C-alpha cells in the first residue's frame, strides 16, 4: 500500500473539496439558467407544439443530469472533507451509502450491481467513533475484495448493522454461483484481502464470513 | 401573506451569472431584487437602503459573507439574512446561525423554496420589528436606530 502521511491526505482533501465547491457553483448556474428557460416557456410556450415537446424533453434531460451531477458532487465533497477530522462520530448507514456511491462505477464496469439494502433491513441509527478516511477505505476495500471474486450479473448490497454487540456493515452477495465458504476462501487467498485486513487492523476492526448468505461482515466496534 | 411588491430583497453573490439569473427568476415571481457582487458592495447598498431580506453567499473575495452577516445583524438586527452557499460546512452553518442567520441553504436550491423562505423571513422581520417597537416604546430595549446611533457615538 502507498504510504500517505497526514499532510498528503490533508492536501488532497483541501484541493478536492475546493474543486467540488466550484463544481457546485457551475451546476448552480446551469440549474438556474435551465429553470429560467422553463419559467419563460411556461409563460409563453413555443407556437409549434412539436418544438415545445422537444424543448421540454431536452430541458428534462438537463435537469435530470443536473440532479445526478449535484448528487455526485455532494458525495465527492463529503469524501474530500473526510480528512478534516482524524476522529469523528460516523453513522454507519451514511458511511455505507457514501462508499456505495463512490464505488458504483467500479461495480458497473464489472457488470455487478452494487446497492444499499432496503431500509427495513438495516440499522439507521448505529454509529461509531473513528477515523472517517480509514473507515471509508475499509468499506471500499471490502467491496473491492468482493468485486475481484464475483461473476458478472451478481449483486452486492450493504447494510449497517448492530447485532449481538457487533457494530458494522454487512455485505451480502447474490447470484454468486458459489457458496459462501468458497467465496470467503477465494477472498482470503486474494491480494486485496491483505489490504482489507491491514486497514481493519489499523482501526481495531475485523472481518468475518456471513453465516447464512455469501458475503462478509465488516466489524468496526 | 406578505405583500410581495413591498419586500426589499438584496441578493449577494460573486458569481455574477448565478445571481443575475436567480434575480430574473425571483422577479418572475413578482418579487423585486437588488444585487451586490461582493461584501463591500452589499454593505454599501444596505446602508443606502436597508433591505428586509438578504440572500447572502458565504465565500466571496474581500469581505466574506460571514463578516457581512455579522456587520449587518449588528447594525440592522431586523434584517433577515438567508445564507445560500455552495461552500458551506456544518461549522459554517453553526456559526451563521449563531450570528443570527434566518436560514442556511445549500446551492443549488429550488427557486420556489427560496421564495418561500424569503416570504417567511419577511414575516419574521415584520413581527420582530413590531415587537421591538412595542418594547422600545415601553423603554425596555433599544431600537436598531438607537443601537446604530450609540455605535456611531462610540466611534467618535
Q: What's this entry about, in short?
A:
The complex is a heterodimer of chains A (221) and B (156). Chain A has 221 residues and is an alpha+beta fold.
Q: What do these coordinates show?
A:
- With 221 residues, chain A is an alpha+beta fold.
- Chain A contains six helices and seven strands, in the order ααβαββαββααββ.
- Chain A has helices spanning 6-43, 49-81, 92-109, 132-147, 180-188, 191-202; strands spanning 88-91, 113-116, 127-130, 155-163, 166-174, 206-209, 215-219.
- In chain A, β6 and β7 (215-219) form a beta hairpin.
- The mean pLDDT of chain B is 86.
- The radius of gyration of chain B is 15 Å and the shape is globular.
- With 156 residues, chain B is α/β, with parallel strands linked by helices.
- In chain B, 52% of the residues lie in helices and 14% in strands.
- Chain A binds chain B through residues 21, 24-25, 27-29, 31-33, 35-36, 39, 43, 66, 70, 81, 84, and chain B through 15, 17-18, 21-22, 24-25, 28, 59, 86-87, 89, 107-108, 111.
Amino acid at each position: 500500500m502507498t504510504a500517505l502521511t497526514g499532510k498528503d491526505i490533508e492536501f488532497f482533501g483541501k484541493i478536492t473539496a475546493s474543486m467540488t465547491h466550484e463544481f457546485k457553483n457551475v451546476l448552480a448556474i446551469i440549474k438556474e439558467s435551465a429553470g429560467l428557460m422553463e419559467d419563460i416557456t411556461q409563460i409563453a410556450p413555443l407556437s409549434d407544439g412539436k418544438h415545445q415537446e422537444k424543448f421540454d424533453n431536452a430541458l428534462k434531460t438537463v435537469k435530470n443530469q443536473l440532479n445526478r451531477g449535484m448528487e455526485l458532487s455532494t458525495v465527492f465533497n463529503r469524501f474530500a472533507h473526510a480528512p478534516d477530522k482524524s476522529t469523528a462520530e460516523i453513522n454507519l448507514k451514511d458511511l455505507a451509502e457514501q462508499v456505495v456511491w463512490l464505488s458504483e462505477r467500479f461495480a458497473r464496469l464489472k457488470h455487478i450491481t452494487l446497492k444499499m439494502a432496503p431500509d427495513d433491513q438495516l440499522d439507521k441509527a448505529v454509529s461509531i467513533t473513528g477515523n472517517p478516511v480509514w473507515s471509508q477505505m475499509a468499506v471500499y476495500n471490502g467491496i473491492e475484495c468482493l468485486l475481484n471474486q464475483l461473476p458478472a450479473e451478481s449483486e452486492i448490497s450493504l447494510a449497517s448493522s448492530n447485532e449481538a454487540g457487533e457494530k458494522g456493515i454487512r455485505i451480502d452477495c447474490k447470484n454468486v454461483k458459489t457458496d459462501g465458504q468458497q467465496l470467503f476462501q477465494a477472498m482470503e487467498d486474494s491480494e486485496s484481502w491483505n489490504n482489507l485486513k491491514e486497514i481493519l487492523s489499523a482501526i481495531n476492526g475485523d472481518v468475518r464470513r456471513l453465516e447464512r448468505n455469501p458475503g462478509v461482515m465488516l466489524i468496526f466496534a | 401573506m406578505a405583500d410581495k411588491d413591498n419586500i426589499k430583497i438584496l441578493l449577494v453573490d460573486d458569481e455574477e451569472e448565478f445571481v443575475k439569473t436567480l434575480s430574473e427568476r425571483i422577479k418572475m415571481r413578482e418579487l423585486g431584487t437588488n444585487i451586490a457582487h461582493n461584501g463591500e458592495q452589499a454593505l454599501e447598498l444596505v446602508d443606502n437602503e436597508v433591505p428586509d431580506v438578504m440572500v447572502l453567499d458565504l465565500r466571496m473575495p474581500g469581505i466574506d459573507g460571514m463578516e457581512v452577516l455579522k456587520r449587518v445583524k449588528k447594525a440592522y438586527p431586523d434584517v433577515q439574512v438567508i445564507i445560500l452557499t455552495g461552500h458551506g460546512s456544518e461549522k459554517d452553518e453553526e456559526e451563521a446561525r449563531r450570528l443570527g442567520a434566518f436560514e442556511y441553504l445549500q446551492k443549488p436550491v429550488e427557486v420556489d423554496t427560496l421564495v418561500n423562505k424569503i416570504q417567511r423571513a419577511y414575516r419574521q422581520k415584520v413581527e420582530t420589528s413590531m415587537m421591538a417597537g412595542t418594547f422600545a416604546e415601553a423603554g425596555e430595549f433599544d431600537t436598531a436606530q438607537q443601537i446604530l446611533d450609540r455605535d456611531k457615538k462610540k466611534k467618535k
